[in-house]
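hey so u asked for the seq, here:
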Amino acid sequence: MTATAPPAGCGTQGAPGDERLLPAAPLRKLLTRPELGSVVGAAAVFVFFAFAADGFLRAASLGTVLYAASTIGIMAVPVALLMIGGEFDLSAGVLVTTSALVSSMFSYQMTANAWVGVAVSLLVTLAVGFFNGFMLTRTRLPSFIITLGTFLMLTGLNLGLTKLISGTVSTKTIADMEGFASARALFASEATIGGATLKVTVLWWLGLVAVATWLLLRTRFGNWIFAVGGNAEAARAVGVPVRRTKTLLYMGVAFCAWVSGQHLLFSYDVVQSGEGVGNELIYIIAAVIGGCLITGGYGSAVGAAVGAAIFGMTSKGIVYAEWNPDWFKFFLGAMLLLATLLNAWVRKRAEATS
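ran it, structure tokens below
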């Protein structure tokens, strides 16, 4: 009885195995990473301003760059997760101001400990995030419409209630209230290391990047985010809780808006009610530069952090180079277009090699 020869490619000595079981080449893995374009762009921007701007590489300057990047990055990270989930939040910028206003005015008007205002602000801010998610999932209107409505309502409330309660467009100082010093230590402290002044927002930023990356890549919730962003109906069909996932993503944006709002308040003691308008576009652009697709289902928290770093380097690098700051807007638009084109190319490469 003759033995049957094994089919070709079954892993016998000298025969090639199934190519689907072979480990992917490091270069191929690198090319499929969503943050690839932003990392290359960040390196190019850093090298450019290192030569073009005197003093850019000084320790004090790098501390300033990190601070500028962190204030954007704290919000760009949750916005990136939301975009991976297939949605937008146009109210994120003014929600930061709302958080600061609620904390300040509640503490001042109630003559309460500053921490009471911080806690009330957290509840109010999370409620706004829940409202966005609830309205989106129940009405099935586009997130653009839902959050644009929230943006307009918050903008009006911020200005109207501040003038009604305080009589001006800014809040009263709460610097002399009990609990202010400890709250400032958590949200607005700083330390000097090697000549560079590092704000606590850098730690918040890095911590949020780590948590968001862990959620995306190591948890079931991360799988849900990618699933609802790729195809919400298909995700629902296999048991993914689409409504809960999107609502939690909006509440995640709200939580980070609360952190940013408290930093704003405890850094300057008072808050201007008109601040924050337009910042939501910066958060979205940072996420797009970092590799997130407008269509959802693709991106990373690390990429959004790198996108925020590009913003920080550019905004401060232009100042150190003594250029007209109007060029920042030009650079912003150019980076957005280039990043979108590069992200689309990376996505096609990823799909071709998958």
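The chain has 14 helices and two strands. The mean pLDDT is 87.
lmk if thats what u needed
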